[in-house]
């Protein structure tokens, strides 16, 4: 039955590209260039190398590693990525360049070590950009495009040309510019909606029209689409571009990018593969890993309801949904989370159903008789009504009909110490009346404190999520810290607020540690008694 349902879902839109399923789409990742331009997302060189290696492991076809002429730092990073990641079996390594000779030369030199290299030249083609930004005319733009493509051919035969602001560019002028670029040697033509202006219907029509007219001229190139998310339609417009004939998509991990972001790699790959519109070389089961790495390096995580990689993307809390997923996953999951390296979870709240609670207790190894279960379910509903979030420790509170987690671990004091530019934090804890101390180094005070707590009381646990946010405006704002910690099969959440951000983080971890201890004590007693 399960396979039959899955087949129904998969086949409903199968083969939308000219009736030809399994045509390959080139995945061009610009996380390190366009994504890195986003406010708050800038990565240092070593972090960019980590992302580049992860992208190669993921299986993207092209990595746009940066903009070589923009800074010495970008030039050096592109050179390192070209040498270390741009191997024979690795992806194409690409650098962006304006239609300026020195830009193209910088890109070519930065890419020297790459076995497979691409120079990506661009110039604005919309009237508003030509007149308002460039202060030139349309003939000049075409000349710049042609000259830059010819210059790029001195370094590589793989040349991409972009019509910046294609979304607002006259289509017939686009055809004129694109035709000239192809004749000059461009092998990939990118049609970017730079400001996210287009609707899906417009995106399809414009891309299809341009590709059709270029084919009529007997000119050959791979067409690409690059969409921004200002109206929240980047992914929809990208898929429409593919259906219109584009065979390369330009994307970023988690959809990061300037303003409202770029098309998200994970969303496009999920749609192409799940709906069987087309195939690509991305190993989709590694998407979760890539998303998490980027989040950890930038310190910015996808919003909870982010498609595919958000923490709620495969989370089910409503009782009806939980019951459906337990009985047949595809009732409420159109994708298999395992296919994208993420997990399906049952979360619990006031709307959770009894079947889900039974399933969760079963996972925890707790078998309740019917009378005990009914009492527990009633207690849990009351508890969930009072709290914003519940975790595994709250389930045990419901079983025991208790309301408070005992404090086995309390912070006595902490003191930051800096030695040769490295931070250590001396931390004292009260553990059931005994004072214990730890002093661990880290990349900052919070990291040092976390390492100390982990070594003292959280051995064998794993930090799943860590977030600090301001509790108000100005210098008097409280730091609100939320952590998610797992150990064995349990997952708990710790929360704390304090005007001292380090103290807030420490207390959030101690909250999580106390909740884990509560679980351990209860389950130890349960095993003994049962």
Describe this structure in words.
The chain is of the alpha/beta class and 530 residues long. It contains 17 helices and 16 strands. It has three domains: 2-298, Alpha-Beta Barrel (TIM Barrel), CATH 3.20.20.70; 315-400, no CATH class; 409-529, 2-Layer Sandwich (Double Stranded RNA Binding Domain), CATH 3.30.160.270. The chain has helices at 2-11, 45-58, 72-84, 101-110, 127-134, 138-152, 171-184, 200-216, 234-243, 265-274, 287-298, 319-327, 354-363, 370-386, 392-400, 445-457, 501-529; strands spanning 26-29, 62-66, 92-98, 117-124, 159-164, 188-193, 222-227, 248-251, 315-316, 345-346, 409-419, 422-431, 434-442, 462-470, 479-487, 490-498. Strands 1-2-3-4-5-6-7-8 form an eight-stranded parallel barrel, surrounded by eight helices. A three-stranded antiparallel β-sheet has the order 11-12-13, with helices on one face. It has a three-stranded antiparallel β-sheet with strand order 14-15-16.
Provide the CATH topology of the largest domain: TIM Barrel
What is the CATH C-level name of the largest domain? Alpha Beta
State the total count of DSSP E strands: 16
User: How far apart are the first and last residues' alpha carbons, in Å?
Assistant: 37 Å
| Main sheet specs | 8 strands, parallel, barrel
Q: Point out poorly predicted stretches.
A: 1-13
Strand proportion: 15-25%
C-alpha Rg, in Å?
27 Å
Q: Which strand order spans the largest sheet, edge to edge or round the barrel?
A: 1-2-3-4-5-6-7-8
The CATH architecture designation of the largest domain is: Alpha-Beta Barrel
- How many domains make up the 3D coordinates? 3
What is the CATH homology-level superfamily of the largest domain?
Aldolase class I
Shape: elongated
The number of helices is 17
Mean pLDDT equals: 89
Instruction: Output the structural class.
Output: alpha/beta
Helix content: 40-55%
């Amino acid at each position: 039955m399960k396979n039959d349902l899955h087949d129904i879902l998969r086949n409903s839109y199968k083969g939308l590209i000219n009736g030809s399923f399994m045509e390959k789409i080139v995945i061009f990742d610009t996380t390190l260039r366009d994504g890195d331009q986003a406010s708050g997302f800038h990565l240092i060189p070593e972090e960019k190398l980590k992302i580049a290696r992860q992208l190669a492991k993921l299986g993207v076809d092209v990595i746009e590693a940066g903009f070589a002429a923009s800074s010495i730092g970008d030039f050096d990073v592109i050179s390192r990525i070209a040498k270390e990641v741009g191997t024979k079996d690795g992806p194409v390594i690409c650098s962006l360049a304006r239609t300026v000779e020195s830009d193209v030369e910088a890109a070519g030199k930065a890419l020297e070590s790459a076995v497979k290299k691409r120079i990506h030249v661009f110039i604005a083609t919309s009237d508003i950009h030509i007149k308002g930004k460039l202060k030139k005319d349309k003939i000049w733009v075409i000349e710049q495009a042609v000259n830059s493509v010819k210059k790029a051919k001195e370094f590589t035969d793989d040349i991409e040309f972009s019509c910046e602001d294609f979304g607002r560019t006259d289509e017939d002028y686009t055809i004129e510019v694109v035709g000239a670029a192809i004749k000059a040697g461009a092998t990939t033509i990118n049609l970017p909606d730079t400001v996210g202006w287009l609707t899906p219907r417009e995106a399809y029509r414009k891309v299809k029209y341009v590709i059709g007219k270029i084919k009529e001229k007997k000119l050959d190139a791979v067409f690409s689409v690059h969409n921004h998310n200002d109206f929240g339609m980047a992914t929809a417009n990208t898929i429409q571009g593919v259906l219109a004939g584009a065979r390369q998509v330009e994307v970023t991990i988690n959809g990061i990018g300037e303003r409202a972001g770029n098309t998200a790699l994970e969303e496009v790959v999920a749609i192409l593969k799940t709906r069987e519109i087309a195939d690509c070389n991305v190993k989709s089961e590694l998407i979760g890993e890539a998303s998490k790495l980027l989040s950890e390096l930038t310190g910015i995580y996808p919003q909870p309801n982010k498609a595919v990689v958000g923490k709620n993307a495969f989370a089910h809390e409503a009782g009806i949904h939980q019951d459906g997923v337990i009985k047949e996953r595809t009732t409420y999951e159109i994708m298999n989370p395992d296919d994208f390296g993420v997990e399906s979870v049952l979360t619990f709240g006031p709307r959770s159903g009894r079947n889900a609670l039974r399933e969760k207790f079963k996972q925890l190894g707790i078998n309740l008789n019917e009378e005990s279960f009914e009492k527990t379910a009633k207690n849990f509903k009351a508890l969930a009504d009072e709290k914003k979030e519940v975790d595994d420790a709250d389930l045990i509170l419901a079983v025991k009909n208790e309301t408070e987690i005992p404090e086995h671990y309390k912070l006595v004091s902490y003191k930051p110490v800096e030695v040769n530019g490295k931070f250590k934090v001396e931390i004292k804890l009260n553990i059931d009346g005994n004072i214990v101390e730890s002093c661990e180094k880290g990349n900052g005070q919070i990291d040092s404190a976390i390492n100390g707590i982990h070594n003292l009381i959280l051995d064998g646990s794993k930090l799943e999520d860590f977030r600090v946010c301001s509790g108000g405006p100005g210098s008097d704002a409280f730091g609100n810290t939320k952590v998610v910690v797992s150990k064995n099969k349990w997952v708990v959440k710790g929360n704390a607020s304090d005007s001292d951000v380090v103290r807030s983080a420490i207390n959030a971890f101690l909250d999580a540690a106390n909740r884990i201890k509560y679980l351990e004590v209860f389950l130890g007693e349960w095993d003994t008694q049962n």
